[in-house]
C-alpha cells in the first residue's frame, strides 16, 4: 500500500469497524482467525461496511486520503507525482506500471502540470521552469499537430521546451507539446482508486475522526435490510451531516446532493 496523506490520523482496521457494528447489534464479534470465514450476520456486516466504505471513497475522487503519494516538505514543486520525459517522445503512461483502467489513477488534475529541468537526467543549473497549459486531444490535433512533426526520427524534428499537456483519448496517457528537446521532470497531482477491504487488518483509509461517518452509512444499510425505516432514515440523516462536515474539512466543499439509495419493500 502506498503512503497516503493523513496517515498519521489513520489506524482503524476493517475488523475494528465490523466489530463495532456487531457489538451494537448484540452479535458475537469476529476474531483475526475467523474473520475470513465469517457467515451469516457477521458476513453481512462485513459486506455493508465495505459497501459504505466504497460509497464514501467514490463520493469524492480527490479525497486527500486517496492522494497517490504524500507531498514532501523538501519538494519545492506542487505536484505529488512526477514522470521524466525523453527527448523527442510525445506520449507517457500517467501511472507507471498500470495495466488498464482498473489500475490507473482514479483522478488526475489536468490543471496541475508543471515542467522543470531541475532533477532531470543530465540537467544542470540554471534550471528551466514552466507551467504547462492543458489542451484537449481534439484541439491539439486541430490547431497544433500540423505544426509539429509526429516522427521523432525526422531529419527536422520540431523539438522545444514543453508548453502544453495533452490528455489522450482514453485518459491514460499524457502528451507533451511541443516534443521535448531534452529530459524534463513533469509534476502533477493524482489520486488512486480505492480498493475493497478484504483482510481483517486492512487499514481503512478514512481518517479516524471520520470513522463515525462510515459507521452511519453501514448502519443505514443494516436498518434498511431489517426494514426498520425509522432507524434507517435517522442513520441516513447522520451520514449526510457527517459527510458534509468531512467534505468541508478535507476538501472545502459542501455536499450538494445525495443519491436516493433506499429500497422499497412490498
Short description:
The protein is of the alpha+beta class.
Keywords, separated by commas or semicolons:
266 residues, alpha+beta, disordered C terminus, disordered N terminus, 5 helices, 4-stranded antiparallel sheet, 12 strands, 14% strand, 2 domains, 4-stranded mixed sheet
Would you write up a description of this structure?
By secondary structure, the protein is an alpha+beta fold. The protein has two domains: 7-66 and 197-250, no CATH class; 81-191, no CATH class. It is 28% helix and 14% strand. The chain contains five helices and twelve strands. Helix 1 packs across helix 2 (40-59). The model is unreliable at 1-10 and 262-266 (pLDDT under 50).
Helix content: 25-40%
The ordered H/E elements are HHEEEEEEHEEEEEEHH
SS element count, helices = 5
What is the number of strand segments? Answer: 12
The percent range for strand residues is 5-15%
The neighbouring-strand order within the major sheet is 1-11-4-5
Tell the overall outline: elongated
Q: Main sheet?
A: 4 strands, antiparallel
Q: How would you classify the helix and strand content by structural class?
A: alpha+beta
Terminal Cα separation, in Å? 44 Å
Can you give the mean pLDDT? 88
Low-confidence stretches: 1-10, 262-266
List the helices and strands and how they pair.
Blueprint (H helix, E strand, L loop, with lengths): L13 H11 L15 H20 L21 E4 L6 E3 L13 E2 L5 E3 L12 E3 L1 E4 H7 L15 E2 L3 E4 L5 E5 L1 E2 L4 E4 L1 E2 L19 H15 L3 H22 L16
Helix pairs in contact: 1-2, 2-4, 4-5
Amino acid at each position: 500500500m502506498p503512503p497516503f496523506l493523513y496517515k498519521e490520523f489513520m489506524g482503524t482496521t476493517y475488523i475494528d469497524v465490523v466489530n463495532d457494528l456487531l457489538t451494537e447489534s448484540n452479535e458475537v464479534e469476529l476474531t483475526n482467525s475467523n474473520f475470513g470465514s465469517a457467515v451469516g450476520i457477521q458476513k453481512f456486516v462485513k459486506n455493508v461496511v465495505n459497501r459504505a466504505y466504497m460509497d464514501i471513497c467514490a463520493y469524492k475522487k480527490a479525497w486527500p486520503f486517496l492522494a497517490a503519494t504524500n507531498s514532501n516538505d523538501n519538494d519545492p514543486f506542487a505536484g505529488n507525482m512526477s514522470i521524466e520525459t525523453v527527448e523527442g517522445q510525445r506520449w507517457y503512461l500517467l501511472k507507471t506500471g498500470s495495466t488498464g483502467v482498473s489500475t490507473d489513477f482514479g483522478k488526475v488534475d489536468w490543471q496541475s502540470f508543471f515542467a522543470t529541468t531541475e532533477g532531470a537526467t543530465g540537467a544542470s543549473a540554471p534550471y528551466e521552469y514552466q507551467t504547462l497549459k492543458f489542451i484537449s486531444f481534439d484541439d491539439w490535433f486541430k490547431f497544433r499537430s500540423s505544426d509539429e512533426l509526429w516522427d521523432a526520427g525526422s531529419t527536422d524534428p520540431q523539438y522545444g521546451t514543453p508548453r502544453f499537456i495533452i490528455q489522450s483519448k482514453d485518459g491514460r496517457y499524457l502528451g507533451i507539446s511541443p516534443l521535448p528537446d531534452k529530459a524534463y521532470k513533469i509534476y502533477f497531482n493524482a489520486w488512486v482508486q480505492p480498493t475493497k477491504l478484504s483482510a481483517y487488518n486492512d487499514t481503512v483509509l478514512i481518517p479516524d475522526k471520520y470513522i463515525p461517518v462510515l459507521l452511519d452509512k453501514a448502519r443505514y444499510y443494516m436498518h434498511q435490510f431489517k426494514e426498520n425505516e425509522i432507524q434507517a432514515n435517522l442513520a441516513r440523516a447522520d451520514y449526510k451531516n457527517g459527510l458534509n462536515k468531512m467534505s468541508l474539512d478535507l476538501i472545502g466543499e459542501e455536499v450538494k446532493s445525495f443519491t436516493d439509495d433506499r429500497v422499497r419493500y412490498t
